[in-house]
Amino acid sequence: MALSKVVLTNLALSKIGSDRLQITNFDTDTTVAGNQARLHYDQTLEELARMHSWNCCKKRTEVGAFKIELTPNASTLAAGGFSGILTATSTDSNGRPVYTTGTSGQNGYINLAFNDTAGKWSITYGASNTNNVANASPPDGPTYTGYNPFTLYSGGVYTVAIVKPEFEYDYSYRIPTDAERSFYVTDSSAVYNYIKPRVDWVREGNSILTNEPRLFLCYDAIPLPEDMDSLFAKTFYTMLAMKLAVPITGDRELEISLLEEINSVILPEARRVNGFERLEAPTLDSEWLEATVISPSSLSNSWPPFSQTSYGSFE
Question: What angle do CA 280, 283, 289 make, to 5 degrees?
Fold first, then answer.
């Protein structure tokens, strides 16, 4: 069965014995069931995504600067171009930050976002009440560090620099808009076969503070209905049913019964099955412990290569 907001809501309603209140349109249904479903749906989904590291919620991206400073050239500034510091207002579908302010076509308007078609960062700005577009160079790629610092734009229209935190950390990165829970942070896109590098970081508001000039993030996002696995979906619509029980039926005992079902039956099993579908090396704390994470010592490709009979002189 293809999942959708309507299907998930109706499954929740069926859990509280309200088959007669099934909805047909999630966004426009005006019944008590429809109104209550819209009230509780998103909040319930966010709560569930925070409860566990769900595989169906996983996303990966390289994140970009939280704040940037835009410096226009003299002619752009004189024509009404924006100048100053911008905070990332959102992120695109790939987790890259988007910076925008003002009204399109007007003086002071700016929009800086990655152009997937051109493969470059594009800046649209209002100067003399017209929209002008310039592409950043070089194009995005594996050597383009962290989407920042940005280079000069075509014709030197704008320079873009990272705004660093006030103290303690060197960099501040914009958390993707759809991120519900940060799972793993590292400083490289490379695959680590034996250990995961330790990266000092902390989440503050909508940003991650760190000392790393480039940051990669694995996080839990709010999944679309079609991306939910069956046990995650069951946990969700049972939680939604619990939230709807009192507003629709007035039955507090039903709410408690559904909560007990979630905590004692559904959620533990969903977490257990979810845990089978991954294999991760532990995060280690010292070079000595890292040296113990090897393949069998009889193999020549172990690391360190303990099958060697001599390592030479340490002098």
Answer: 115
Please check the confidence at residue 138 and state whether its pLDDT lies above 50: no
Q: What single-letter amino acid sits at 101?
A: T
Q: Provide long-range contacts, Cβ within 8 A and 24+ apart, for 225-229.
A: 225/3, 225/4, 225/5, 225/7, 225/8, 226/2, 226/3, 226/4, 227/56, 228/3, 228/56, 229/55, 229/56, 229/274
pLDDT of residue 241: 94
Integer Cα distance of 242 and 215 in angstroms: 39
Instruction: Tokens for 106, please give them.
Output: 């007007």
Min mean pLDDT across 64-78, 168-182, 264-278, 284-298 is at 284-298
- Select from 114, 118, 117 the least CA-distant residue to 94: 114
Provide the 8-state DSSP code for 309.
S
Query: Average pLDDT for residues 195-200, to the nearest whole number?
Result: 68
Cβ neighbours of residue 242 under 8 Å, at least 6 residues apart? 255, 258, 259, 262
Which residues make beta-bridge pairs with 220?
A: 58, 181
Distance (Å) of CA 159 to CA 112, 123, 155, 240? 12, 11, 10, 48
> Confidence band (pLDDT; 50, 70, 90) for 147?
very low
114 and 121 Cβ atoms separated by less than 8 Å: yes
The predicted pLDDT at position 145 comes to 38
Mean pLDDT of 195-210: 80
Is residue 85 a contact partner of residue 172, using CB atoms and an 8 Å limit? no
Q: Which residues touch 101 (CB under 8 Å, ≥6 apart)?
A: 82, 86, 89, 108, 109, 110
pTM: 0.66
